[in-house]
Amino acid sequence: MRPRAREDERGISxxxxxxxxxxxxxxxxxxxxxxxxxxxxxxxxxxxxxxxxGVSVVMTHTAERFVGSASFAALSGREVGTHxxxxxxxxxxxxxxxxxxxxxxxxxxxxxxxxxxxxxGAANSLLTSCYLAFRGPVVVAPAMNxxxxxxxxxxxxxxxxxxxxxxxxxxxxxxxxxxxxxxxxLAEPAVIVAAVEAALAGTAAVKDMAGVRVLISAGGTREPxxxxxxxxxxxxxRMGWALAAAAxxxxxxxxxxxxxxxxxxxxxxxxxxxxxAREMRDACRAEFxxxxxxxxxxxxxxxxxxxxxxxKMDKAEAESLTVALERTTDILAELAALRDDQVLIGFAVEHxxxxxxxxxxxxxxxxxxxxxxxxxxxxxxxxxxxxxIITIIGPGEAEIALPRMSKRACAEHILDAARPLVPARTVxx
Length: 429
Ligand SMILES: Cc1cc2nc3c(=O)[nH]c(=O)nc-3n(C[C@H](O)[C@H](O)[C@H](O)COP(=O)(O)O)c2cc1C
Description:
- The protein is 31% helix and 21% strand.
- By secondary structure, the protein is α/β, with parallel strands linked by helices.
- It has an eight-stranded mixed β-sheet, sandwiched between helices. The chain has a five-stranded parallel β-sheet with strand order 2-1-3-4-5, sandwiched between helices. Strands 6-7 form a two-stranded antiparallel ribbon.
- It is elongated and about 80 Å long.
- The two termini are 42 Å apart.
- Bound molecules: flavin mononucleotide.
- Flavin mononucleotide (FMN) binds next to helix 2 and helix 5.
């Protein structure tokens, strides 16, 4: 597989947006496996090329039964690797030659079979050998029928791949090739490319946040009613965790003030526990002065019980119960008033059609640089899941409405918007 000269470099960044200063071109190794959606990888390849990336393709033998390698060879302008060993008139490819010089490996579509091989470390095809030999970021876009996707074996595979650091682009829910409607359809090509570019932005080559001190609040606070009950919310902390991982990968020094998040912690990131609104406020204030960028992602209770009962209230005591609530401190507004030259980003989970307007108003009212809006009424944009659908409001008049994508991909877009605002002095610190 010949590395193509970067003659088609057009000054377009990996994100494809004008004005970005990220490197213009990445070399991508794209794996295609055996499923109905294999034909859609041709679209993925075209979009990657339009964004200035060089793409080399490896296919499994089964993938070739769905789409001929000649199509990928013609579009990529490169030979397509299918065999580890030359036989039956096919040239063999050494997996180390194939992975050499590549910035990222993408597998789209990824079959249940290939993913399970990846999860166990089996390497009996050119594609899976490349996966094991490759040391850069890996993006995987699964596609299969709903029964296969929902099978516990596939769930175990996905969990293992995530734990191994693979960037998963979750399949869409929709009409599948077998006529059924459910989860398993390959994500839209544009969404896959966005995930690739988000992962590229986190590669070692792009440490554009080196020296930047980032403070992230994550999770949801719980306000005690008594010793065992609380007023809380559904926040899982996944968005804050994704922001922390993205900022860390881009070289930032990251502190996460977290409320009740039950997710694995990442070495290199500092975590401060703050389970209630009061503790969240105290911890954020303490960390804020030494920060350059605040991402206030936690769902902090707006109200808390005026006084938590001591011990556990006995339900026999009363037929009904009224709990008096009092306002908590608006942490973001308070920190905005205290700011030196910190960049402030707020999050507005709103419900319903007027939400975007309320989020815009929130940015102005709280005097923050950017507000990230999502609509809790929209499927796929709610609490807890792996994906989000966000609109980035600001800085200034800028407003970017993004399609559904992984929280990690959202995090990269948010950091892309915030990075130019962070004072330059911190970059060389
Ligand atoms: C018509 C047809 C469609 C298939 N579609 C899928 C699919 O969408 N996803 C999947 O995981 N497997 C699918 N399979 C099964 C895989 O092709 C099979 O598991 C194969 O071993 C995968 O090989 P590979 O992972 O080496 O590409 C399909 C099989 C057939 C015959």
